[in-house]
């Protein structure tokens, strides 16, 4: 049996009785009777190992995936009701009608759970973006349609007030380096996908091609967060809508090619 086979089999055996996110290199190495560096060499990193173990666990027991969905759905309600700071995994477990152990099986901390919710939100955004951009391109006046789309994205702040506040609360409270790295990876992934769509707009000569598309995406994201902060400081709806109109019009005029 190769070292790789020993490592993989040992990891799977441990995963039969222990949550994937609680398994360490040292445990796998001890079970496989190899040095811990051999485990790292075959998995690449702790996060990669745990993702692999997670897939194995859910494939072996589909009920785990169903339980995870229940936890995420309950978490959305709990975070919305109590805010990020006052929410807890205990409250999520109670809302879901599950034991605390069932929640901790999937998520090691409140930060981990909230980040999983955020990942789902980002994934939904990415699935919707291509269709939204295509509708802009097919409009009779793409420049106006783009400005309207920008405004609609900003107006989501008003309709999703609780979610926006939760995001800011999470952003300023997270100090765990691993969580911050995952957050950064999510953020970069979203901006990269938006940049790909902006690049296509540039190729079709709808947007000024002198600007870097990733920088445009980052600029819009920064504006979105800036509008959110301004709204927190001055929550008058009419003020928010006026600001959104100004931002979307100014941004559109700056990057849309005049025809």
Automatic annotation (TrEMBL):
Sample GO molecular function, one term: transcription cis-regulatory region binding
Keyword Repressor belongs to the record: yes
Highest taxon, organism lineage: Bacteria
Domain HTH tetR-type: 65-125
Entry keyword Repeat: no
Residue ranges of the annotated DNA-binding region, renumbered to this chain: 88-107
Transmembrane segments: none
Keyword tags: DNA-binding, Repressor, Transcription, Transcription regulation
PROSITE patterns the record matches: HTH_TETR_1, HTH_TETR_2
Protein name listed in UniProt: TetR family transcriptional regulator
């Amino acid at each position: 049996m190769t070292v790789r086979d020993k490592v993989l089999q040992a990891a799977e055996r441990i995963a039969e009785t222990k949550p994937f996110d609680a398994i360490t290199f040292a445990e796998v190495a001890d079970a496989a009777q190899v040095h811990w560096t051999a485990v790292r060499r075959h998995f690449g990193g702790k996060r990669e190992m745990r993702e692999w173990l997670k897939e194995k666990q859910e494939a072996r027991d589909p009920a785990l995936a169903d339980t995870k969905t229940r936890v995420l759905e309950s978490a959305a309600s709990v975070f919305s009701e109590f805010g990020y700071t006052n929410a807890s995994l205990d409250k999520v477990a109670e809302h879901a009608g599950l034991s605390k152990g069932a929640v901790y099986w999937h998520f090691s901390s409140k930060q981990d759970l909230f980040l999983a919710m955020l990942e789902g939100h980002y994934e939904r955004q990415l699935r919707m973006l291509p269709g939204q951009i295509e509708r802009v391109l097919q409009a009779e006046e793409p420049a106006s349609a783009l400005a309207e789309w920008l405004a609609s994205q900003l107006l989501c702040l008003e309709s999703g007030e609780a979610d926006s506040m939760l995001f800011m609360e999470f952003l300023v409270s997270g100090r765990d380096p691993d969580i911050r790295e995952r957050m950064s990876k999510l953020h970069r992934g979203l901006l990269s996908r938006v940049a790909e769509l902006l690049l296509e707009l540039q190729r079709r000569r709808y947007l000024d091609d002198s600007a870097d598309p990733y920088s445009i995406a980052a600029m819009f994201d920064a504006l979105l967060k800036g509008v959110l902060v301004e709204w927190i400081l001055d929550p008058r709806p009419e003020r928010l809508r006026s600001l959104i109109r100004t931002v979307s019009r100014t941004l559109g005029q700056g990057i849309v090619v005049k025809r």
